Amino acid sequence: MTAAPEPARRPAGTPAPAASGPRAALRAGLIGLGAMGRNHARILSSLDGVRFVGAVDPAGDPHSAPHGVPVLREVDELLDLGVDYAVVACPTALHEEVGLRLAANGVSALIEKPLAHSAQAARRLVDAFEARGLVAGVGHIERFNPALQQLRTRLEAGELGEVFQVVTRRQGPFPHRVADVGVVKDLATHDIDLTSWITGRGYATLSARTVSKSGREHEDMVAVVGSLTDGTMVCHLVNWLSPLKERFTAVTGERGCFVADTLTADLTFHANGAFATEWEALRAFRGVAEGDTVRYAFPKREPLVVEHERFRDAVEGKPSEIVTAREGLRTVEVSAAVLDSARGALTARADSDSGSGAGSGSGGPDPDVQLV
Ligand SMILES: NC(=O)c1ccc[n+]([C@@H]2O[C@H](COP(=O)([O-])OP(=O)(O)OC[C@H]3O[C@@H](n4cnc5c(N)ncnc54)[C@H](O)[C@@H]3O)[C@@H](O)[C@H]2O)c1
């Protein structure tokens, strides 16, 4: 039910008003009212400059999430209301279908991560939005985490010197709602996106192993080792099989190590010790010593609010840093390479076990995947 009289509807695809002068509210919709969708509903209902006009979920609204807006069953009903943009938070397997429908109707979209279930689907989405000059973003929310924003700013300022290694760990228990993709596409895409973003480098090569223990079609544990285009080493451990929740990013370089915890939004710097050792035997060893540890203080705004503000500004035509659909595509491509590598390793092991020779040192699939 609408809480207040509706303003005149702007047909879908009509350009948003110019940024100067009093701001006319953008009309926004939401597609999917599940675990993530209800958070989007909360933000959309109070976002300055935006009028939240309706939400779509064929299952209705079990959480009283949409704050007085109509809950619709079909995307077309939302399009009939007239929207400038929509947030897509339905299951990943439906992102392509829903996104293409929005693009065909001239509606910009903030699509939850991962952009799509496959690289081909992600590419079709990028093409559709770019061809119509629409704004398309991806909900890689870690980029808006204050700890990672601080980390990136400090890396860009050269505080670490040369970067040697990025390590991430994203471990936790099983989320029963995710059934359409495995942990690589659902969770490791966060690690792939944030690693590229904080370093400003793409992936050059990687090798991965997966484990499937939950009895579902998809993997639920992955280990990835790779290198970025400048040679920086990366390592990601991501799973749904740990009875603890961890969101850890460590960047080690010439001057020490930054550690970001994106659960608490804390950033800590462990500096290399600067003192000269008097122990002659150690003088020849050029490794590091422990120095000071600093935990930084900085404002901690809710990442989802910042993500929405940036996207709204982009739809209004203002300069704004969003995660573009093209960047989201690249992340899906890297996640597909992770799965290719893991499959190659499994095949090599099966061949080796069966004594066919491949994978037993005489050739066979190479689990190292080149990305550039
Ligand atoms: N950015 C993040 O940190 C983050 C966190 C969680 C989920 N997500 C992403 O959000 C998306 C949804 O995940 P979730 O955890 O909320 O899943 P969920 O299963 O809790 O919710 C999905 C909702 O979509 C609805 N739905 C199904 N078909 C639909 C359709 N055709 N149109 C509209 N709605 C439909 C379902 O009824 C359900 O309410 C996924 O792509 C997931 O990867 C992102």
Automatic annotation (TrEMBL):
GO terms for molecular function: nucleotide binding. Residues 149-258 form the GFO/IDH/MocA-like oxidoreductase domain. Gene3D superfamilies: Dihydrodipicolinate Reductase, domain 2, NAD(P)-binding Rossmann-like Domain. Residues 1-21, 348-372 are annotated as: Disordered. InterPro entries: Gfo/Idh/MocA-like_OxRdtase_N (IPR000683), Gfo/Idh/MocA_Oxidoreductases (IPR051450), GFO_IDH_MocA-like_dom (IPR055170), NAD(P)-bd_dom_sf (IPR036291). It comes from the Bacteria. It holds the Pfam family GFO_IDH_MocA_C3. Residues 27-140 form the Gfo/Idh/MocA-like oxidoreductase N-terminal domain. PANTHER family: BILIVERDIN REDUCTASE A. This is Gfo/Idh/MocA family oxidoreductase. It comes from Streptomyces boncukensis. The lineage of its organism: Bacteria, Bacillati, Actinomycetota, Actinomycetes, Kitasatosporales.
